[in-house]
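This section describes the prediction task in plain terms. A model, or a person checking by hand, is given the sequence of a single protein chain and must write out its three-dimensional structure as a string of tokens. No templates, partner chains or ligands are provided. The sample shown here is typical of the held-out split.
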Amino acid sequence: MKTGRKLLHACLLCLLPALLTAQDKPKYTLSGYIKDAATNEASIGASVGVKGTTIGTVSDVNGFYSLSLEEGTYTIVINYVGFGVIEKQVEITKNTVLNFGMKAKTQLKTVKILADRPDHNVSSTEMGTVRLDMSEIEKIPAFMGEVDVLKTVQLLPGVTSAGDGNAGFYVRGGGPDQNLILMDGATVYNAAHLLGFFSVFNGNAVGNMKLYKGGMPAKFGGRLASVLDITMKDGSTKDFHANGGIGLIASRLTVEGPIKKDTSSFIVSARRTYIDALVRPFGKEGSTLRNSGYYFYDVNGKGKFILSKKDRLFVSGYYGKDLFLFKDNEAEFNIENSWGNGLGVIRWNHMFSDKLTLNTSAILSDYKFSFDVEQTSLRFKLFSGIQDWSGKVAFSYFPTIRHDVNFGADYTYHIVSPISAAASSGDVEFDLGEAVKNNSHEMAIYLSDDYEVTPKLNIHAGLRYSYFMQVGPFTRFITDSINTGQVIDSVAYGAGDVVQDYGGLEPRFNMRYSLNDKSSIKAAYTYNLQYIHLASLSSLSLPSDTWTPSSELVKPQKGSQYSVGYFRNFKDNAYESSIEVYYKEMKNQIEYKEGTLPSDDVKNNADNQFTFGRGWAYGAEFFFKKRFGKLNGWVGYTLSYTKRQFDEVNLGREYFAKYDRRHDVSLAANYELSDHWTLSAVWVYGTGNAITVPVAYYFIDGNFVTEYGARNDFRMPAYHRLDISATYKVDRTESLAKRLEKKTKRYKKKGKDTNNVALKDWYKNYESSWNFSVYNVYNRHNPYIVYFASEGSVATNDYAIQAKQMYLFPILPSVTWNFKF
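The expected answer:
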């Protein structure tokens, strides 16, 4: 395997220069920006194609596109989800700049599911990649009325949820820490509110979303499994708009508009749950119910500034927090548990020419977790977090018709705070050691090219080199691992001292071969290194899970993924289908040693509690989608196997990972019943999670002893659930007429001239809808936790232990009023 990988590295190094120097030089360039005609917001991922040819591209994060064409007359076709198709004849006799303004469609039946070319499923080199637009996500039945980006992602084949109440999602056998989640380029370390029931992404602020399950481009790195790239809306440079919704447990509001018309804009979006406010009045004064509560809130903001024809500046930020409070005055017992993300991004876009563009970003990402408990005079606190300061430089270069080149560099300074503790009793502070901070540098350079070798053969090749260095100040605690595991010595590193470093090449390779204009075969290989890891003490993914950097003991995770797929469209691209098979190898996987507790990290290094092993996963994904018509949606099925092997776990024997799921099925459907009513449904099914359970109990010398079976050798019951929703769109024409009639009557009563009756501009654009949804329609009791309870006694010879399960959500109806003006 090592020899094969070295050979592949060498081949790619030789291949890239050849691709970049191909002797196909076009005469002229057609370029420009694609935007929403009503708001001037960039249309990200819009398809630009030349009718009757295989020539095409998609617009970038700024809405910019570039095509190299020989002299002649062409018909340019623009496709973008939720907008009318544009066809424009263009005569190319010189370098030409042509901007397009997309106009929204008014009929839902013509809305497409994905923002791609109609034949993108077949024609592109992308594998395991899905681009979703919010117009599609908003149709999916919402949990308690909240549209959720991550819940929609989990409906795709190859992506699974660990079940209700889990913050992470799993892609092709990878752990939750192996997903790179980006918001406007900033890393999101915990993407969940309310333990995974809601995501941190406010649907009103999200513009576009793209998921890479395999074959990720070289510009992305640092994770083994996937990339979820989310771009926030820019805000309108034309007019002021507002939209939002009021639900049973949460409300949201988004306001956007021009700072200076046509040159700058802003958007601000906020939401908050009010579970605490609804429950508190039912508690008596001074009661636990009155003094306790849970809520979360988040705020998004973004500004766009068009500095010149070639320069644009974007400033965006996010802050969100979850807070759980419990207070029992009688027992003098208080708990405060909080966690949240803070993000800040400044991005400058510069166009050197119609062939070369630059995006430069400065980014801050900050995640914090704390757990504070107090009883009488005794107080104990746990806290952890991770903070990143990053810079990115990304170039896009379009040298010829056949080449699409991207290159650049990334740098991140990590400040990781593993679990630290503080304790006190009255005025007495206990010595639990100083708060620990691990500092490290991570950097990378990359180069990739999407090259059309022939009309039938397309190759996307990329190469990334990454480097990681842990630096001081740092104290390495040395433990007596053979006997007690207690700390016996330490080594101190000064500020800036190199503690440990790693680096390596990460090749990426995708290939598409067209069998005909309706079908193609694709293959991909991806090799990744991951330097930041998540360690969990629980079988669930929780906010308290600890992020830790690579170190002397923790080697970078290494992942290789191979995938092959067949893609076929039917009936003029109205239907899409695909079959993908994959195999993934993962090295240097991390688990806590058996019997480890969070307090073991106090006055110790977190990595002294870890054990290391390997993993592998393989499977097949089947996907079928109907793009158009009154009835549209998709069905996906995944058959997969995910295994792990650690020398110090399960007696060194291989076992199924806790998130191994043999069968996973998802069905999403939308039906336009009338101009007013749209119906939606989602049904999911998944094999139960693998867990470790007791197999025998003994009394030895009066002591009760539990014997556990093999690691993850028992399956929880299968998970399945049906959600439905109905959306009623208020008749805008009828409501405007009624509003105008009421205003006319008021004018008559006051003796005013009724010829001057007119509605305000904001009301002319007013829209509203009601969403009625039911979560878990047939009240399935999906297991959250399986636990064991004893009954009877040994003395009466009727002692028995029974397995029981706890579930979280029964059937849950909800109603939400949404508005826009």
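For orientation: The CA atoms of residues 233 and 741 lie 36 Å apart.
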